[in-house]
Amino acid sequence: MLDCRSRMTTPDRPPLERAARHSARVALWASLVATALAALLLHRFATPIPDASWREASRDQELWLAVDFATRPEVELLRELVSVDTSAPPAGESSREAELADRIAARLAHAGVPATVERFADGRANLWAFVEGADPRAVVLHGHLDVEPPLEEGAWRFPPFSGAIDGPWIYGRGMYDMKSLLAAQLLAFEAVAAEARAGRLPARSLMLLFTSSEESGSDTGTRWILAEHPELVARLATVLTEGGVIEALGPREVKYFGVEFAQKRFAFFELCAADRESLASLRAELLTRGASDARPRVSPEVATFLASYGPSRGREDYRVLLRDPERLVREDDRFRQLTPFLQSLFNEAVYAFEPQPAEGGGWTMKTVAHLLPGSSLEALLADRLPPWLTHGVTVGPALLAGADHGSPVDHPDFRALTGVVARRHPEAAVGPYFLPVTATDARHFRAAGRITYGFSPFVLMPAETTGIGKPDEKMQLPAFLAGTALYREVVETLVAAPARTGD
Predict the structure, then answer these.
(1) CATH 3.30.70 applies to domain 264-401
(2) pLDDT at 249
(3) Cβ pair 312, 429 in contact under 8 A
(4) Burial of 88 (0-12, 13-18, 19+ CB in 10 A)
(5) Which pLDDT score, from 0 to 100, does residue 393 have?
(6) If we measure between CA atoms, which residue out of 303, 299, 494, 307 comes closest to residue 411?
(7) Stretch 90-103: mean pLDDT, rounded?
């Protein structure tokens, strides 16, 4: 534990300077929000409304009005998964992850598939099961059992773990992250298991792996599995997990269907000082310097992403800009034309949270660094936390998580996956996706040398995903049902083809 009690002197910043820096931060964030809104409006007006597609969607809506969603087996499964509150429990209480894992194991046993549930003393759990194929190296369907806690419970229209259905919508905490994908994975796994029981063994084994604690660092989940279960790690060939991104304007108007293949690395550490003001001033400086002193660069993974993503942009000026990423990072005037999202693909940063009182005295500030693949943490910290900025502040050891590379986009499994999606959505550009801000357990699998892709099968409009992690989190059931069918087709395609030698 860092000792934050020692008094170290730092020059006080004048109140006027502090106020100016605060105003600069407000202006910065306001400009980012304004830029994002402007980009959305420009795209909407620059792209013709697909009248035929919307007429077809309207007809679909009329058909769905006659559907009793509550009786669909896929929906029944989703409601059961949502009904178990697997959010982080209050201090002193146990998690309900093991309860959910036991329910899933019982369901698999009923289908003739034995499952292993690994329990921890605090109620957390991991679950795994196999459908054995000719090749023991498995395609892995990975998900996490835990969800974010349901904040603002009084603001929910329906109880957050009720799985309430209202028209074509189903409500519940973790609907997106990630109970709906757990349901799709479980249904696909059961379909392959049924084929195997009928004597039609897959060419490749299939593994179901549901892990613990992803929302809080994966200490008892994926990281634990990779460190403590070499017998399982030896069987992991290609992993499918969360993290795919779909840009859709309508059910039949998918603009870009992205399969996550790479993401930034995160490094977590603490800054410590005797007084709060030292940390608050440092945090303000980081916010200011993060905007003005960015040194963008093009990683190979980002170049791969943009080669596929750029041509799908509705605006000609963006297509032109993204055609030459190296020129973008050399010329400030071109770089400033990008949206904050696109700029984040090229930037690395250090973010600090609000200072908090430290145990034993003094103050501490949790801090995270975002690194592009292949970057040096030492070089980033030397640039963003130089000695003059950290005078009087102790920098704690950093925990660096994730791989410094992406997964290959020329791999047969990537081509097979995107091929299935392209057949289902011929209107879409289908390709790799780079996650510039968020992180998933894919980073841990890649760091262990396993090919990993983030894939979501659910075609949802942007407005439908704004409720993730908020009260009244909901999902459109027609999209859920279509997504489960797509996911099953992808999995059946992957296990039907023999793995490439050496994978």
Answers:
(1) yes
(2) 84
(3) yes
(4) middle
(5) 96
(6) 494
(7) 93
